[in-house]
Design brief:
Blueprint: H1 4-14, H2 20-33, H3 43-75, H4 84-105
Helix pairs in contact: 1-2, 3-4
Amino acid sequence: MINCEQLAARIQSLEPRADMREVARTCLLLSNMRDRLDDFEDEEKLAEAWRELSLMLQLATDQHAAMTEELEQLAKSNPNDFDKEQIWILVRAIKVQSQVLQLYLGEQTLDV
């Protein structure tokens, strides 16, 4: 059975320039993606999961950046004057944040 230290070494071999924090974050995120960490003993399965994780992180990062811009604009307006679209901006922001948390916690996202 693979342990965290072994997984970190394998990640480091995939991404030699990754710093300690990136390796630790990747270990956490990969372990949340699979029920069986033994799958990562296979180099091909690890590389595939790492590519999948990279895409998920990029998507979450892009969504978060877009929501941040919308929320900054929303913060400049008067909450008493919010219309339906502004409320939906808040709901979408909650969903995006939920997706990011799900990556790190390995739990189901809030279905909004």
